[in-house]
Amino acid sequence: MSSTVVVAMDGPSGSGKSSTSRGVADRLGLAYLDTGAQFRAMTVWMLRHGVDVEDPVAVAAQAGTPHLVSGTDPLDPTIVLDGADVAEAIRSAEVTAAVSPVAAVPEVRARLLDLQRSIIADALPGGGIVVEGRDIGSVVWPDADVKLYLTADAAARAARRTAENGSGSVAATEADLLRRDAIDSSRATAPLVVPAGAIHLDTTQYGLDEVIAKVVEIVEQATSGGTAS
């Protein structure tokens, strides 16, 4: 593998991005960045400060206020908001329901884009980074050495997310995922798309270890001068 590498991992919620990205980063000795956690942390701040998340003007006005720090250890990723760990708070049902409209606000995306690019640049001297999100290969780092787009059918994604949450209805989770897909894919700024040059992996029929192994193989081939498939 080359001395530095940026792996962009995009895809909808529940496609396996997070677990795959952490596993690949760990296997390859790379840093890891969960950009979705940053948008969720911004949403936590808006909710805690009484900002109407459905009002893009109100959200935009506060986009520069929260202070975020993302840990990049794939075995212990952290997200700190104004000095407090919010790793648990960002996964609440309230935040999940509110994150898509917050993430659609251009001022929020611009603020976090600068932060994300800074984290990626800082990771390169250490070997590189695996970055997951919905616009990594298309907007955040379009020159990524490896671009992947992970998907799975909606039922599989819903079952995975419900299992992760430890409660809830698979049917209700599937409806929420499809709602978020629609918002993320139709927003004016940095919509969810398959990035140009990305390798599309449908993870529906595969276990996590299989997907991680496949992605590691793709990265090693791409960064050693081989041809990924």
Characterise the protein shown here:
The chain has helices at residues 17-28, 35-48, 56-62, 93-103, 106-123, 136-140, 154-165, 170-186, 208-223, and strands at 5-10, 31-34, 68-70, 79-81, 84-85, 128-133, 146-151, 199-202. The chain is of the alpha/beta class and 229 residues long. The chain has one domain (5-216): 3-Layer(aba) Sandwich (Rossmann fold). The strands form two sheets. Strands 2-6-1-7-8 form a five-stranded parallel β-sheet, sandwiched between helices. A three-stranded antiparallel β-sheet has the order 3-4-5, with helices on one face. The mean pLDDT is 91.
Write a brief caption for the model.
This protein is of the alpha/beta class and 229 residues long.
Poorly predicted ranges? none
Largest sheet: 5 strands, parallel
Strand segment count: 8
Helix/strand order: EHEHHEEEHHEHEHHEH
Proportion in β-strands: 5-15%
Gyration radius (Cα, Å) is: 17 Å
CATH topology: Rossmann fold
Under CATH, the homologous superfamily reads P-loop containing nucleotide triphosphate hydrolases
Task: Tell me the strand order in the biggest sheet.
Answer: 2-6-1-7-8
Helix count, per DSSP?
Answer: 9
Give the termini separation: 16 Å
Q: Which percent range fits the helix content? A: 40-55%
| Shape descriptor | globular
Coarse structural class: alpha/beta
**Overall pLDDT confidence:** 91
- What is the class in the CATH system? Alpha Beta
Return the CATH architecture.
Answer: 3-Layer(aba) Sandwich
Number of domains: 1
